[in-house]
Specification:
By secondary structure, the chain is mainly β. The longest helix is centred in the last third of the chain and has 12 residues. It is built from 1 helix and 12 strands, in the order E-E-E-E-E-E-E-E-E-E-E-E-H. The N terminus is likely disordered. The protein is globular, with a radius of gyration of 18 Å. 20% of the residues are buried.
Length: 167
């Protein structure tokens, strides 16, 4: 869905939006959300009501703040919500600078509580995957790997060596 400067909405497959922001919100029926790697924070994602949104932007910054939503070297726009009966995930496929907001939310229709997540990008293509399973996080991760490809095993001679330019 694209809105132009005249507030006209139209749908177009594979559209590229320049000089505009793209935003889409999701409600996940889970109290625990994980994902958005490459940050110096806990595995469980915090709500962004007090700390500000998670920023997804590739950068190489030294002396990054600990336990913050500040990005590190890469940006993986993937978020997973896990509850006792289901698991759902969102893969936001946009390479532009992106902010992710996470809020506690109550769905009045189903009388359930969960998390409302919002991805906002500085432009680019509106492309995302919604994945879900009743059997748990392993099934959702397998679905994502089938679509995007499984990570290859590194060569044996590269294991145990890390070159870092920072002290």
């Amino acid at each position: 869905m694209i809105a132009n400067h005249e507030d006209t909405l139209f749908f177009e497959s594979g559209s590229t939006v320049e000089d505009q922001s793209i935003s889409l919100g999701y409600w996940i029926n889970a109290q625990a959300t994980y994902g958005i790697p490459s940050r110096a924070n806990t595995f469980l994602l915090n709500t962004t009501e007090t700390q500000g949104p998670y920023r997804l932007w590739n950068q190489d910054a030294f002396d990054h703040p600990w336990l913050s939503s500040f990005p590190l070297y890469g940006a993986v726009p993937y978020l997973m919500g896990h509850a006792a009966t289901q698991t759902a995930s969102i893969a936001w496929m946009n390479s532009a600078e992106t902010w992710v907001d996470i809020f506690d939310s109550v769905n009045q229709k189903n009388e359930g509580s969960g998390m409302y997540t919002s991805f906002t990008s500085q432009g680019g293509v509106l492309d995302f995957w919604l994945l879900g399973a009743a059997s748990g996080p392993k099934a959702v991760s397998t679905q994502l790997s089938i679509m995007s490809g499984f990570a290859p095993m590194p060569s044996v001679n590269s294991l145990g060596f890390h070159f870092c330019k920072w002290e």
